Amino acid sequence: MALVIDTGAPLTHNLPRTEAGKITKYGNLSLEIKNIWKLNNLCAYLSVISAGGVITENFLTHLQKTGLTKNILRVGQKAMLLLTCHTVPLHLRAQDEFLSPD
């Protein structure tokens, strides 16, 4: 058995589109991987958490297929929020530098 984990971190309004894209991508890719590596079972875990920590409706369903615990949800949400909090000031500072006259 093999486990493929792919994560996405879109803005909240792009969650459904990002998840649909990953499902399409990994539907075909998982068949190819199974054939190349001669695997009996392959599980693709699609983790899509928005920059604000919002998850898709199918997040827990995908999580159950992998056998991972729900703790990964809290860790993922915390990581996304911390990354967003770190990134926003960097963008604001860059914007101020771009707009300020020299």
Task: Record the SSE blueprint.
Layout: E1 2-8, H1 15-37, E2 42-48, H2 59-66, H3 71-99
Parallel strand pairs: 1-2
The tally of beta strands, per DSSP, is 2
Into which percentage range does the β-strand content fall? 5-15%
Number of structurally distinct domains: 1
How many whole angstroms does the radius of gyration measure? Answer: 18 Å
Residues in helices, as a percent range: 55-70%
Largest beta sheet: strand ordering: 1-2
Mean pLDDT: 82
SSE order, as H and E? EHEHH
Task: Give your account of this protein's structure.
This protein is of the alpha+beta class and 102 residues long. It has one domain (2-99). Helices cover 59% and strands 14% of the residues. The protein contains three helices and two strands. The protein has helices spanning 15-37, 59-66, 71-99; strands at 2-8, 42-48. The chain has a two-stranded parallel ribbon with strand order 1-2. The protein is elongated, with a radius of gyration of 18 Å.
